[in-house]
Amino acid sequence: FRTGDQSVIPGQRFDLVLANINRQVLLEMLPALTVRLAENGVLILSGILIEDEKIMREALTPSLAVVERLQKGEWLALVVRKLPRVR
């Protein structure tokens, strides 16, 4: 278990990553989070306003699939799984 920005995870891959930050920071961190997420790993992106859902979904690479959408009031979380590479 670790907390912090992507500098605390150099060279490691994780089965679960939770990022509860605002949309702009999530968008900036998404490439680094994707690289650090293990195949079949789960990335929970939260702190997203409902009006920003389309922007967040469009930012996901083809290797990331939304498996669940959670909403509470005006806030949203996307639960994403990293698909295994086709070999």
What is the gist of this entry?
The chain is an alpha+beta fold and 87 residues long.
- Helical content stands at 10-25%
Number of domains: 1
CATH class annotation: Alpha Beta
Q: How many helical stretches?
A: 2
How confident is the prediction overall: mean pLDDT?
91
Q: How does the helix and strand content classify structurally?
A: alpha+beta
Total strand count, please?
A: 4
- Outline the low-pLDDT stretches: none
> How do the helices and strands follow one another from N- to C-terminus?
EHEHEE
**Main beta sheet:** 4 strands, mixed
**At CATH's second level, what is the architecture?**
3-Layer(aba) Sandwich
Q: Cα-atom Rg, whole angstroms?
A: 12 Å
Query: Which range does the strand content fall in?
Result: 35-45%
CATH topology: Rossmann fold
CATH superfamily, by name, is Vaccinia Virus protein VP39
Write down the overall geometry: globular
Layout: helices, strands, pairs:
Layout: E1 14-20, H1 23-36, E2 37-49, H2 53-59, E3 64-72, E4 75-82
Parallel strand pairs: 1-2
Antiparallel strand pairs: 2-4, 3-4
Outline the structure in words.
- With 87 residues, the protein is an alpha+beta fold.
- The chain has a single domain (11-82), classed as Vaccinia Virus protein VP39 (Rossmann fold, 3-Layer(aba) Sandwich), CATH 3.40.50.150.
- It is built from 2 helices and 4 strands; from the N terminus they run βαβαββ.
- It has helices at 23-36, 53-59; strands at residues 14-20, 37-49, 64-72, 75-82.
- The chain has a 4-stranded mixed β-sheet with strand order 1-2-4-3.
- Helix 1 links the parallel strand 1 and strand 2.
- The mean pLDDT is 91.
